[in-house]
Amino acid sequence: MTTTTPPDSARTSLRERATGVTVFAAIMLMIGGILDIMRGIAEIAADDIFVSTRNYVFAFDLTAWGWIHLTLGVVAFVVSFGLFMGSTWARVLGVGIAGLVIIAHFLSLPYYPVWSIIMIAVSGFIIWALCAMRKDDVFVPFESPPGM
Q1: Stated pTM of the model
Q2: Less crowded by CB within 10 Å, the N or C end of the chain?
Q3: Helix, strand or coil for residue 3?
């Protein structure tokens, strides 16, 4: 006679926490992507909300920054949908995009410093959230429940 044991509560708790952190990272990546899209459009339109600092080491054209932020925003938005589905490729690309967002916002510090610092911190959290959990801890939306 065989007996089935209920799933370990610690394992279930870890899975729920991993799922929650990954979903939160996906939501933050989606929101960051949308905001980067808006920032890119504002920079391309040569909006007056951006301040240009003189004699900064990294001097770039504001329109070029607009295209960079627009591209990163679109890719981050698309990758966030893959994270909602629990895809491994989305986790890898999410880490890469968040890393590129950190670099882009660091280099654009003179144009919008407070927002750049906030986005660097958020992107750092996204990288942590996507790297901290193992693949087998993350909930896959269409998997069968344990014991079936």
Answers
A1: 0.73
A2: N
A3: coil
Residues sharing a CB contact under 8 Å with residue 100, sequence separation 6 or more, in sequence order: 72
At residue 65's C-alpha, the angle toward residues 63 and 71, to 5°, is: 105
Query: What's CA 50's distance to the chain center, in Å?
Result: 24
Residue 143 to residue 15: CA distance in whole angstroms:
13
Orientation angle between helical segments 9-44 and 62-84, nearest 10 degrees:
150
The whole-number pLDDT of residue 30 equals 93
Of 1-5, 72-76, 98-102, 137-141, the least confident: 137-141
pLDDT, tens digit (0-9, with 9 covering 90-100), for 34-53: 998 998 898 888 766 666 66
Q: Amino acid letter at 145?
A: P
Q: What are phi and psi of 138, to 5 degrees?
A: -85, 135
Distance CA 8, CA 15 (A): 11
